[in-house]
Amino acid sequence: MNKLQLKGDWNQMKGKVKEKWAELTDDDMLAIEGERDQLVGRIQKRYGHTKEIAEKEVNEFMDGNNCCG
Question: 3-64 domain in CATH 3.30.2420.10?
């Protein structure tokens, strides 16, 4: 996954991210700001998932939304 592409798509993806992970706060969204690792970390924190589960969810989400190449 190309980090620069995620950053470029971030403004378009924010709404979909909030729909998928509704427990993420506006502060979380500001902190994430297109950084995949930050998204994974915030999902871990808010949902109590392991890193592996959070990464799997993010990968599936990105694939399902044709994000990031």
Answer: no
